[in-house]
Design goal:
alpha/beta, seven-stranded mixed beta sheet, 15 helices, 13% strand, globular
Length: 404
């Protein structure tokens, strides 16, 4: 009987799994692990959203199958969000679709638009689903260096010239996970022009649209660019903006051909999120938005504490302008360890868990991603632990490397 399945064989070993395994073992021993590894928001979902969920769940009619495209009121709320936040008009029936989180939407759109052997341009480093969603769909991935937005733009022309067949689609993600970098509308204008010139679809991941720290310059949407809807679709999530990660509520907006393709795939795979979740998501988008500003302020405060405390510990980390992550270069004295081994040593000797940069692609090597999902007191404790670890490393690097 066959046990080596084709799609499973195409997936590389999961880099994060080794750190997760060691983290679980440490917790089983009773160690207090300060966990910055996963971008899993820890703040409570705002009360008015939960109240709407409970209210709707009490109606027996809400327990029936829902709509895979999303209920009408939710799609209208999603379009309303784009008009309010970006000044972009969307048709709720043709240009918006609800998804089970942005990750599901991204992976299912990859299934919808990809034939085996199609070439997809994916930034590197990148959030894993940006590549693996297409790998599962049978595509060939061309990794495009993206240590900065400028590098990504420069590298796209070369990637197209040296790809056979010509690429079908390209992926962008700003504010970026993992690097936390941001872009302006000029970047998106270049992407749209490039996509039209080469007849390539654009998939934009804007999951961190509302987690930014320069109030005067909120991250834009690619759909603000004239003609972008001819080539682009954009994914959003309520997970971060409204602290709803476990609710699995997101959406895609933009090009109606891509939206229709995603809707067709979803119609075969799911009946949409539980109706009370969709109604509560509608309340989140249509309701008071001060909760979003409050969460943004919490992330900003955590960011500032992290950068300051780690600097005092001897670890200089650039201050991220957006997202819920810091993209931290490994301290010089330990850079030779690589991101995976450094993450393991940090966990073993400082009880601090981070995500190794290698897990986001080869160009993520030399970095770790730190998620702002612990409170300020815990962040300060992590910095004290890291200070002891770094001091030990400087004083006795050989002992550290041989330690278990």
């Amino acid at each position: 009987m066959q046990t080596e399945f084709h799609r499973i064989r195409r997936l590389p070993p999961y880099v994060f799994e080794e750190v997760n395994r060691l983290k679980a073992q440490a917790r089983a021993r009773g160690e207090d692990i300060i966990d910055f590894g996963m971008g899993n928001p820890d703040m409570p979902t705002p009360a008015h959203i939960i109240e709407k969920l409970v209210e709707t769940a009490r109606d027996p009619r809400s327990n029936r199958y829902s709509a895979s495209r999303g209920i009408k009121g939710l799609r209208k709320a999603m379009a309303g969000y784009y008009l309010r936040r970006f000044g972009v008009h969307l048709d709720p029936d043709r240009e918006v679709i609800a998804t089970l989180g942005s990750k599901e939407g991204f992976a299912n759109l990859a299934q919808a638009i990809t034939a085996p052997g199609d070439v997809i341009l994916v930034p590197n480093p990148a959030y894993p689903i940006h590549a693996f969603g297409f790998i599962l769909a049978g595509a060939a991935i061309r990794h495009v260096p993206a240590t900065s937005p400028e590098e990504y733009l420069r590298s796209l022309d070369r990637a197209v010239r040296h790809s056979v067949p010509s690429p079908t689609a390209l992926v962008i993600n700003y504010p970026s996970n993992p690097t936390a970098q941001v872009v302006g509308l000029d970047f998106y204008r270049e992407i749209v022009a490039f996509a039209k010139r080469h007849e390539i679809w654009v998939l934009s991941d804007l999951a961190y649209a509302d987690i930014y720290f320069d109030e005067a310059n909120p991250p834009p949407s690619i759909l603000e660019v004239e003609g972008a809807k001819n080539v682009a679709v954009e994914f959003q999530s309520l997970s971060k903006s409204y602290a709803m990660p476990g609710w699995r509520m997101g959406f895609a907006a933009g090009n109606e051909t891509l939206i229709a393709a995603l809707a067709r795939i979803k119609s075969y795979l799911d009946y949409g999120a539980y109706t009370p979740v969709q109604v509560a998501a509608t309340a989140a988008l249509n309701g008071p938005q001060d909760c979003v500003a409050q969460m943004r302020a919490i992330y900003r405060a955590r960011r500032d504490v992290l950068i300051s405390a780690m600097a005092k510990a001897g670890w200089n980390i650039p201050s991220p302008p957006a997202s819920m992550f810091a993209w931290a270069p490994i301290p010089e004295a330990l850079r030779h360890l690589g991101s995976l081994e450094f993450s393991k040593q940090l966990l073993a000797h400082a009880q601090v868990a981070v995500a190794p940069g290698l897990g986001f692609g080869e160009y993520g090597e030399g970095y770790v991603r730190i998620a702002l999902v612990e409170n300020e007191q815990r962040i300060r404790q992590a910095a004290r632990n890291a200070k002891r670890f770094l001091s030990m490393a400087r004083n006795d690097l050989g002992a550290l490397e041989n330690a278990e």
